[in-house]
Amino acid sequence: DHFGKKRLDLAGPLVANLFRILFLKLTKDVFKYLQRCVESSTDFNVQMAVKASIITNGLKYSLATGNWGDQKKAASAKAGVSQVLNRYTYASTLSHLRRTNTPVGRDGKLAKPRQLHNS
């Protein structure tokens, strides 16, 4: 295919969307903790309410597995977003960096997306 028609998912927006999902999860947990404190008339402790491990573990999980999204919703997450970079040889490193993922199925009969384009 022509490289002018390619659209890329860059690292910045991907990490930003992942952080947004995890931050919303954190705020929901803080809100639930606040509701429990109000119902039981106990003091609100910020250190107990804010669990930094939610964001940390979510980012670690996504970068380690490549399943980009919430760990609980792994079925709907994008698969293969992050990969371990090959460092066997210089040529294998360049080959790994230049790979693109085309969303065309293997059983598709279109030959044009698989043909080399000189752009």
Give an overview in words:
- With 119 residues, this protein is mainly alpha-helical.
- The chain has one domain (8-114).
- It is 45% helix and 0% strand.
- 5% of the residues are buried.
- The mean pLDDT is 84.
What layout of secondary structure does this protein have?
Blueprint: H1 11-39, H2 46-49, H3 53-65, H4 90-97
Overall 3D form? elongated
Low-confidence stretches are none
> What is the number of strand segments?
0
Label the structural class. Answer: mainly alpha
Measured by DSSP, the beta-strand proportion falls in under 5%
How far apart are the termini?
9 Å
Mean pLDDT: 84
The sequence of SSEs as H and E is HHHH
Helix content: 40-55%
The figure for the number of domains is: 1
Q: How large is the radius of gyration?
A: 21 Å
GO cellular component, one term: DNA-directed RNA polymerase complex
EC number: 2.7.7.6
Organism: Parastagonospora caricis
Pfam family, one: RNA_pol_Rpb2_1
Would you kindly provide a brief summary of this structure?
It is an enzyme of class 2 (transferase). Residues 99-119 are annotated as: Disordered. With 119 residues, this protein is an all-alpha fold.
Jot down its keywords:
119 residues, mainly alpha, RNA_pol_Rpb2_3
